[in-house]
């Protein structure tokens, strides 16, 4: 099982960013993809998840309206797009696999650094 994320991004405040997570080694539609971020000096923060089988999403309340999860089953790739970026969104963003019946994230991507700075 592998989750490979796209490279580091630098954005200005107010812009948007889209990070990808390409899955391999398992049936993409059988597991959720969760998104988690970690800001400098902070703990892990769960952003939400997508079910690639039907595109159903569940967003953490903090991010509702500003984040969008999508999944392309033809390429086994999940995406997170965050808009109206602010400096507090500077963090490492991770995708992780989760079996729907459990809360355990068993495989993680390598992380994508997103820096928001003018």
Q: Care to describe what's here?
A:
It is a single chain. With 118 residues, the chain is an all-beta fold. Helix content is 0%, strand content 52%. It contains no helices and eleven strands. Strands 2, 4, 5, 6, 9, 10 and 11 form a seven-stranded mixed beta sheet that branches. The mean pLDDT is 97.
Condensed summary:
This protein is mainly β.
Integer-rounded radius of gyration: 13 Å
User: Could you give a short account of the major beta sheet?
Assistant: 7 strands, mixed
Into which percentage range does the β-strand content fall? Answer: over 45%
- The total beta strand count reads 11
Q: Provide the structure class.
A: mainly beta
User: Could you estimate the helical fraction of the residues in percent?
Assistant: under 10%
Order of helices and strands: EEEEEEEEEEE
Overall mean confidence score, pLDDT: 97
The coarse silhouette is: globular
Q: Count of DSSP helices?
A: 0
Give the arrangement of secondary structure elements:
Elements: E1 2-5, E2 9-11, E3 17-24, E4 32-38, E5 44-50, E6 57-59, E7 67-72, E8 77-82, E9 91-98, E10 105-108, E11 112-116
Parallel strand pairs: 2-11
Antiparallel strand pairs: 1-3, 3-8, 4-5, 4-9, 5-6, 7-8, 9-10, 9-11
What distinguishing features does this structure have?
four-stranded antiparallel beta sheet, seven-stranded mixed beta sheet, mainly beta, globular, 118 residues
């Amino acid at each position: 099982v592998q989750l490979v994320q796209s490279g580091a991004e630098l954005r200005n405040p107010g812009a948007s960013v889209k990070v990808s997570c390409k899955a391999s080694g398992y049936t993409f539609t059988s597991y959720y993809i969760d998104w988690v971020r970690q800001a400098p000096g902070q703990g892990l923060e769960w952003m939400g998840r997508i079910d690639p089988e039907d595109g159903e999403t569940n967003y953490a309340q903090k991010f509702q309206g500003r984040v969008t999860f999508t999944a392309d089953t033809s390429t086994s790739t999940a995406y997170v797009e965050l808009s109206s970026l602010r400096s507090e969104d500077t963090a490492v963003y991770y995708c992780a696999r989760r079996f729907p019946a459990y809360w355990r994230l068993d495989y993680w991507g390598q992380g994508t650094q997103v820096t928001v700075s003018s």
